[in-house]
């Protein structure tokens, strides 16, 4: 009968040993998983470092080629077409004279970048930002839009569209951007009015989730459409490659 009394002790002993082995197995499994994760992270880090090194080396080569090209141009040698993805712009007397390499959607004209006085917008901007009354600010901007000076009108239209966006009136903002786009190469803060208009309208369509209108707006801003270079008379068509 003694062996019957020893059965519970044996069961408890067996269960204890089993639990110890299970705990050890679980710990070993966790260690293996942790090591695998560490190895994978290290491999990812090494791949990123390798990719960064290759990109840096390629960029260094491109910069050296570009510097050599500019040095040759300064020495009077014929200009070479830059590597793929690089745009080279030649300015003379604050105007873009020649373009080589990658085509750009818009070409800057430094002679057009005359900053408009901010005094005439101060009252409207106070209403817009300080008093949080964008509709009243929009009314003042609309009055300034009636001015004849192209740079003043363009600057007012940018602010008018901004005020309508703050007032949650995207359709009115789009109308202001359409008027702004019609001003072509007139600059606001050094950027072409047409470019600012397309970017602003695209942001509205993107925020509203209107993919079709967004694609249409992107097509309007494409430099490949007919007559695109007409907005930049200082860029001669024969100089564009």
Describe the structure.
It is a single chain. The chain has 241 residues and is mainly alpha-helical. It has two domains: 1-78; 113-225, Serine Threonine Protein Phosphatase 5, Tetratricopeptide repeat (Alpha Horseshoe). The chain has helices at residues 2-74, 122-130, 134-145, 150-166, 170-181, 193-207, 211-220, and strands at residues 87-92, 95-101, 187-188, 191-192. The strands form two sheets. Strands 1-2 form a two-stranded antiparallel ribbon. The model is unreliable at 223-241 (pLDDT under 50).
The helix content, as a percent range, equals 55-70%
Strand content: 5-15%
What's the CATH topology name of the largest domain? Serine Threonine Protein Phosphatase 5, Tetratricopeptide repeat
* Overall number of structural domains: 2
List the helices and strands and how they pair.
Blueprint: H1 2-74, E1 87-92, E2 95-101, H2 122-130, H3 134-145, H4 150-166, H5 170-181, E3 187-188, E4 191-192, H6 193-207, H7 211-220
Antiparallel strand pairs: 1-2, 3-4
Helix pairs in contact: 2-3, 3-4, 4-5, 4-6, 5-6, 6-7
Using brief descriptors, characterize the structure shown.
241 residues; mainly alpha; Serine Threonine Protein Phosphatase 5, Tetratricopeptide repeat; 2 domains; two-stranded antiparallel ribbon; 7 helices; 61% helix; flat; disordered C terminus
In short:
This protein is mainly α. The chain has seven helices and four strands, in the order αββααααββαα. The strands form two sheets. It has a two-stranded antiparallel sheet. A two-stranded antiparallel sheet has the order 3-4.
